[in-house]
Amino acid sequence: MFADISEAIKEIKSKDYKNILIQVPEGLKTEVSRIASKLEKECCVDVFIAAEPCYGACDLPLKEAEISGCDIIIHFGHYDFGVKTKIPVVYVPVEIKSELTEKLKKDIEKIEEKKIGIYSSEPFKRLLESFGDYLEDNGKEVVDKKIILGCSKFEPLGELNIFIGSGKFHPLALKGKTYFLNLEKNRFEDLSGEIMKEEMKKAARVSKFEGAKKVGILVSTKPGQFYKECKQLEDKLREQGKKTKILIFDMITNEKLMGLDFDAYVNTACPRILDNPFDKPIVNLRDLP
């Protein structure tokens, strides 16, 4: 991973900030100490490191910044999610330099579909552009090309989706026939079966939720995930005959739900929370009929 911190340095120097909080994704943690040292040397500042897991630009460490008296947050790896903050936030893009191997090109040549939607995450933005050109040079029509989030939801436009990157967090957010161009493992994988299983699991969760009498509404305090209409949701569910309570969390985990006497839960935070195992049925708010 490569992160260009020159713009962050300019911003810090121009505003004469003194205390900086930096936040990095998991893949950049091995470099975070070096980044902190460089900022301290270049800008003559004190640097704090947000050490909790980072799930995206919806998960800014605002409380940590306030408690530590920081003037600015430098957030690495994601673009602006639109979270309104009192403390300034500078978003530093992270790039993973990679290219198609001959093995991957041979696998891609076997694709029969003509109309293709291609997707990736922010660190692979440059490769996404060149991959689109590559497909069109080889007789394909690129009908959609997007940077997506793990929580993205949209209807694919092509006969086939191809996600470029590493890890299944993002491609499992897609629908329909989907291939994963796995750059980390140098494999071209068909994820259609896994995506279909996820759709079946979702249908089963919704069915169990509909039969639940006592429901907990899961609300996150993370700045980009907090659901302001949680009370209106509670009123709506009570009109449907359910007994409800609103539960507030920073991070929602199965362990935190243990011991609570609810039949099921509705999740109003990040929809990818359900990628983790839970003992009780949980349905995402956006999946409710």
Query: Uncertain regions: pLDDT < 50 for 5+ in a row?
Result: none
Distance between the amino and carboxyl termini? 41 Å
The figure for the number of domains is 3
Strand order of the largest sheet: 8-7-9-10-11
Classify the beta-strand content into a percent band: 15-25%
The number of helical runs is 8
Q: Which quaternary structure do these chains form?
A: single chain
Rg, rounded, reads: 21 Å
Total strand count, please?
Answer: 15
Find the structural class using helix and strand composition.
alpha/beta
Mean residue pLDDT: 92
Order of helix and strand elements from N to C terminus: EHEHEHEEEHEHEEEEHEHEHEE
Going by CATH, the architecture of the largest domain would be 3-Layer(aba) Sandwich
Return the CATH topology of the largest domain. Answer: Rossmann fold
CATH first level of the largest domain: which class? Alpha Beta
Major sheet description: 5 strands, mixed
CATH superfamily of the largest domain: Diphthamide synthesis DPH1/DPH2 domain 1
Helix content: 25-40%
Gross morphology: flat
